Structures are given as structure tokens and as C-alpha cells.
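Sample entry (805 residues):
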Amino acid sequence: MNLKRNIGFLFLVGAVLPNAYANVDVTPETNDVQTITQSIDEAKLKELQEFRKKYKLAEPKASASELKSAQMALKMLMIQRTGDYTATGADLWGEKMLNQHLRDAAKNVRVLAYGALTLGKSGKTDLDLYLDYLFTHNFFLRMPKLVYSNYNDVRKIPTDFMSALPVLDDVRKAKLIAAVQKLLEVDIIRQGDKAIMNWISSDYIFNVVPYVFDLAIANPDDQQAILDLQLLSGFLRVCTRYNVGNKDILKPDGTGFHHNAHYNGYMYSYRSWVGYFYRFKGTTLKIDRKSYERLKNAVVTLYMTAVCADGDKNRIYANSMAGRHPFYNIEVPFTQELFEQLVEIGGDVMGTDIDKDLAAYYNYFFKTNKYDVPAKDANGFYQYNYSAAGVYRQPGWVAVMRCPTAVLWTGEIYNKTNRFGRYQGHGTLEVLYEGGLEPTGYPSKNENKGAGWDWNMMPGSTTVHYTDWAEMMPYKNDKDRFDQKAKTTNFAGAVSNKEYGLYAAAFDQGDNWGSQRFVPTNLTFCKSVLAIDGMLFSIGNGISAKGTYADDMITATNLFQTIISKNYDKLVVNGKTMGNGEKMTIPSAEPLTVINPVSTGYFVPAGHDEINIVYDKQQTPSSVGLAVKPATEVAAKAYINHGVKPEKKSYSFIVVPSANEAKMKDVADKQTKGELFNIVEMQDSLHIIKYAPKNVLAYSFFTPAKGLTAGEVVSSATELLLIEEKDAEGNLSLAISNPNLRPKMIDNKNWRELPTPAFIELKGTWQTDVNVPGVFLKTMENGNTEVSCLLRNGMPIYVNLKKVK
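Predicted structure, serialized as C-alpha cells:
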């Protein structure tokens, strides 16, 4: 590996290498080995030749005016040839080379390459002279590093340089390849696994991998080309490994990280992954089984967070997962074609035509029967604790719950981007419907960048409502950055019991990002959501806020906000249709049954704080900030008003997606009679929800608790989420997870997950039919049973128990 780096260096400084593959004498035993190696090399050489035939570099292009300008600039340099591959001229770069110098040189190479292609010998002479001048002056050793997030430079500059490769002789071609490899830091693929994992970047995979492949197959040294392809394949496989903590990319639950948090929008890096493994399909460079399963899990997870669709359009995921692009660019950044390629890659790995399991997912996600396998039944509840999220999937809709932690942001505010994203995931409960933004009730005019939306009110969130939009931006301006995290808490996430699940979050407001960027509101809350049988029961308490902020800023739990459109304009409140321009207040003694314009129903039992309902025009700024003209939309919205600077307020309500009036009446009647959900405990340290029809108890242990009597669970020695379900025979099933990743800081920026030793006490003596790895049962002195296990990476553990009589 060091040899290859040295070869690159020698090319860059203009040395000409001797033949590196001279004949040597070998013993008969060694000769046998060489014969095998040579056979393998012949197979790889054949693959390389096929790659070169199939994936040719594009010929350089330029305009006549560009060519004339480049020829004039070349004359102005006064270049003098000093050898076959050396030339001197004016040094235009001074002591510090800038990116603009790189851009100019790359453009000149592209334009002169076009001249070499179209003008013949004179054009070739100009190109060779200019390149030799660059190498003689050590241009490529002095150039600055490219920033992978600068998508313009990282795509344009290497492309311009590489456009010359089809018209160069082998010596200059090898030297230019080495130069571009240095520019793109291709040396990283030659590092060990640990170095790659510490350095890994989804930007690099998306932006640079295509160049690494093209540079490899363009290399005139076949052995070096084969080696670079092998290194690229190995690099891509290493990058599929789970990188626990805040580093890019894949996490054990399938989520993908960028900018230190789960970021669906940046997972277009999966395109490069799948695209190049598809090229390697059926070759010695093909992906291995373990790497494939991890990549498959990542792609499936990406689709799990979004609604189904019959193509790539309108496959939206939750706004709380939108990063810095609220309501726009929230379609899954992966394509149907690539999904089909991944199905074939899986078949290649398994020695079959297709991966039938992934094909079943495809039929489900794309609402098709393309593959001759039954569509996967993927409805149910999914936990993504590296995202601090829970996802509940049902036919036609997806509900997503999310909240920040001290290390996982849910709102990324950039320069003139997502300026009002402070509450993007503040304990949200979003219901997304198939068909895109409009059927979900979200702003659908992408050109408005969310203008017309009340940025205080994401569905399900608990927030302090700003009355001055400038106050809602970090430092009250359109440019300063901010990642919205909790101040100290790390408990936010879910536990899945497959068909249903529990989400919970404990939150305290963070106002700092390197420095204090907002007037503190000191907002706190704890909330839990039990999603089961097509309903979501949401409870919250400990809702408090205080500070020196304005006295007209209420604290509210926001039920919904819907942008009115032609097809979605009906708001029904307690059986009556509410008209445009109307406002309504529901007093504490009155229960509320409402169906919003996109058919999501809400039932709030009596005893709530005052509820405000509005159906009216609203004018608000776009996500770009205050410098851009605001827009007006008609919106329907409802929120529980906890008052100004409240202390220890609470709420409860049921969400019923895809509802009608008959369904809502049935839910309201049953809930009022105590036949559906019951709040057994709702205190700052513990929530217990009972769901009567299935004898389910859901526990949110925000802190350790003991002396419980609601079900079979007596205590938990640590914070965690737990679902307890008993069947008709008295058998007990437990689903256990700790969404708190217990992050341990490694340095000022980076953290790693710490496991949670869990100890749960159950009433009486229990035993398992089948041993669960890592789960231990012990009979205690008081006759109860202690269940112990180690919870890691927010992943669930399932235990089925029988009572010992």
C-alpha cells in the first residue's frame, strides 16, 4: 500500500518509472502458486476490459470562445519546454494556492483537451505543454484539499481534469490520474478498516466514488487498475459496517447518519453504493453477504420512514426528518430502478435470480406485483432509536413520532435555510398519507419554501409559540446556524412489539449551539404515545416554561395544522362543519371530537386545558427567512393552550388516522366508558398506559421505579421502555428497549453508545419456553422473578414467559 502511494508521488513530480513487472526465477512450488495467481489475474483482467468497454469516459467538450481564450492564456504563460515531460513558465499561484486556481487550471485542461480532440497535432501539443507545465511547477502537490460538501467543486474540478484522459498518452495519463486521486484523497481507500470507519463520510461516497471507479478503469497500468478496483470494492464493503456513535453512516437500527444525526435527505449516498455494487455484480468484486444485508437493511429502513407509492414521486417522509429542507426535498432520495438493482444484487449474493425477501418489500413499497412473491406485510410499529423516532405503519398512512435529545438534533438551521425549524421535531406526532404533501396537509407549493405555514405548530409537538418571527431565528437573523437538541436529556425513542409499539420522550429545551442563540424558554415535558389497532394514544405531563421572554407567548400542545386545498377543506368539530374565517374555543369541561381536513381524527376527553381551533388565513415567512416576501395560506389548526409560562401541565388525546364521523363517535364512546385506553400512571418519572382490548400495559420508565401494581411488572432498576401483554392462558410477553443510548463523550464532538444493564422484577415465579440469548431469569428471595439483560444500541429484546404454579 505504501508502494502505491509512492508511485503516485513519483508520477506527480514527473518521474518516469522502469518496468515494475520484470521476470523472475521461481521454484516449482512457487511456480504452481504463480499459475493460480495468473489465472485469477486473467479473470480480473477480463473484468477490467469489460468495464472499459461498458463505461467509457466522456469526450471533452468546450465552446469555440473557450478554446480561443485558453489558447491565448497559454501564450501569456510564456511556457518553455525543458524536456520530454517538463516545461517552465510563469508561476501564477504565489505562496498559497486557492480553489479558484484549481477551477481555472481544470477548465484550461478541459478546453485544451477539446482542442486536442478537434484540432489534431497542434491542439495535442498545446495540451501536453500545459500539463507538463503544471507538473513541473508541482501544481498538484500544492493544491488545496476539496471540501466534499462543496458539491460544485468536488464534481466540476475532477470532471474537467479527467476529460483530458481519453486524448493523453499513457505517461501523462498516469500522472494526471495520480493527480486527481490526490485531489480526491483516494488514498483513504488504501487505509485499514479502522481508519476508514473513523473517517467515513456519506458525502465522499456520493461525490467521490464515481471518480474512483473511472480513474481506476482509465489507468493504463492494468495491474494498478485491478488493484484500485479491488480497493474500491473493499472500501464500499467496509463502509456498510455499523458505526456506533455520531459518525457517518449506518447504525444498527438501519438509520443513516450525516452531520452527526439521522438524516434521510443525505442518504442519496446509497445511490452510489448500490450503483457500483450493481456494476460489480457477477464479478470477483461483488459484495459479500454480511455487507449486503447491512446495505439492504439501510435501504429498507429509508423506505420504512415514508409512505408507499407506485413510483418515486410523492414518497414523502416526515417533516421532523427533513433536516434543513422543511416540506420540500422530502421524497425518499433513492429510486425504483436502484431498488430493482439491489434485488438483483441480493440474488447474486445468494446464488439465486433475486433476493425474494427484498422483492417482497419491493412489492409492498411500490404497490405492485412485479416480482412473483407475495408483498411483504410491513404494517406495524418500528423503532429507530438512533433517530429518537418511532414509526407506525398502516394501510394508506404512516405516523411518525420524534423528539430531540442532547446528542441527536431534529432541526438543522442553516444560512437562509430552515430559519424557523426550531420546533421541527419537538415531540411531534405526524400522520402522513399516500399521495404526497397535499393529502398530508403540508405546504405543497415548493417555490414558497413553506411560507404560509405556522412554524410554531408541528402536529403533536409541545412548543412555546413565538409572536415575533425574528425571535424564532438563532441570533434573530437569517444566517446563523443552529442544531436543535435537548439541553440535558437523552431519553427519546421507542420500543416495538411488532404489530404495535410505544414511543416516549423526556425533553428539556436547548438554546445553545456553541453560544446562547435564543432567549431561553426553559420548556420541559414528558410524553408517551401507544400506537395500537390503528390508533395513537398520546399523553404528556410536566409541561412547564419560564424565562424573560414575552408575556404573549403561550405554551401549547399542537394537535394538528393543515393547509387547506381544493380537495382537502372540510373541518368537523363535535359533529359540525367549521367554515373559513371561523375560530372556536373548547372549554375544559367539554370533550372534543374533531376530524381535520385530511381525515385525521382526534378525541380529547374532558378535563383538558382550553383548546383553540382556527380555520382562517395566515401570512407567514418562508423557511429562507425574513428577507423573502411572506405568503398567505388558509389553514385549519388546533392546539391545547397551556397558558403563558405554565407549570406542570398535562394532556391526553387519541389520534385516529383515516377517520370518519362514525368511527370517531365509536372511539369517543368507548374511551369515555373506559373501554379503550386508561392512564394508570402519569408522573414525571413514569407513564403507564393500559389498552383494555388486548390486555396490554405500556411502561415509560423515565427513571427507575418500584412498588408497581398495575400488572406483572413490579420494578425496573433503570430507565427503559417496556410493553407487557398477557394472553388468555396467562402467558406473558415482554418487549424491552432503552431509547437512551447513554452517550459517552469521546472528545468535544464525538460520542459512543454505552449499554444499559437492565433488571426488571416480575410478580411471582416465571420461566421461559425457549432461552433468549443474553436474557437471564432469577428467582428472588421474595418469590418474584428478576429478568436481567444488557440493552444495546436502542435495540429491542423480546421475552415470552409462563407462570410457574
